[in-house]
Amino acid sequence: MKLENKKIGRNFFSLIWTGVRRNYDNLDNLDDHIAKRLSDESQDNPVEIHLSRMFSEVFQRHTKDEADRLFIVGTRSTTPSLRKVSSRPVKPWFFSRIFFVLAVSFAMLMLLLFLFKSNKAIPGLIFIGSLAVPFSLMMMFFEINVYQNISVLQVLTTFLVGGILSLLVTMTFYLMLPIRTDVSIESALVVGFVEELAKCVVVILFINSYRLNYIFNGVLIGAAVGAGFSVFESSGYISQYGLMTIFTRSFQAIGTHTIWAAIMGGAIILGKARKKPFTMRDFFTKPKFYIFFLIAVALHTFWDWDIPNTGLNVSIMQEVLDIIIGWFLIYIMIDAGLREVKTLQGQRIIIPKKHRLKKGRSEKNRSKKR
User: Fold this and answer.
1) Which pairs from 56-63 meet CB under 8 Å and 24+ separation?
2) Mean pLDDT taken over the chain
3) Which of 110, 232, 266, 304 maximizes the CB count within 10 A of its CB?
4) What pLDDT does 2 receive?
């Protein structure tokens, strides 16, 4: 009986895994299907991008020289010409090393606090705990920016100044709007709209100031502003509600402000005329922008909303669903960014062989049904 139950259990999980794997593989097609609708160029052929391999370099060995080359970018002498920009699928890896260093630092500070009872470790715990995930995500987008036209100094300036400035803009908006302290959908909507609008305004300021014109540029600047916002906001919450808050806030940062602002940064580039600044008119007249802006507001609202008469399990499911949708939109931006590189370079966009086979089979099936 036990053997039969184990066999049934294995078959059940095998069936689930097969379905998950099939749907995950199809994600490569689904995000490209959406991304090519964002392009003003050819609508027929997908960019060759394999999301399942995006993080394949994380666990590979890399030399110090490879890491150094990632940071020697963004200057007049180190920014490559458009012809030399890589249009291959992006495979960031160094961000995982940054996260590892920050995680080890956090663990060491925890030892100082709990093993040696040193309260002097608390400020460090608050800062490193708030910094680890958002900063690592920001550096991932720094790696993904294949144009290499934004320096480390610009990224850090955007992270610090942009993060604080977005909080100042948020507080200014709060003074003008009535914000209630309840957990209703209306209150969550107001908070989501105010905070995303504040970040959006700051991202636009930096994109216009740096005169950026590429989708990957917008995603990076958005991520930098969102990461700064996340770090300083989390530090405030931890100081107010206690150290235990640091664990939930750190986990949640994988799918909140950094991701939402990165989506808006890419949308700002999609919504403006090339080599021209983003204007107030673009804000209201470009569907490619305001649709993504409204989606970011909706994701923030859904995250903050406590559904009445539900418990912790529903709240966790809300957050997981929010993270999945947010990262799917990030994949769309990455896909659209690679499509943009190939279009600007005048390259022919090639359909991967396995996608051609799938497409041929689906067309044959449709013809048989007819």
Assistant:
1) 56/91, 57/91, 57/92, 57/93, 58/92, 58/93, 58/96, 60/93, 62/93, 62/94
2) 84
3) 266
4) 45
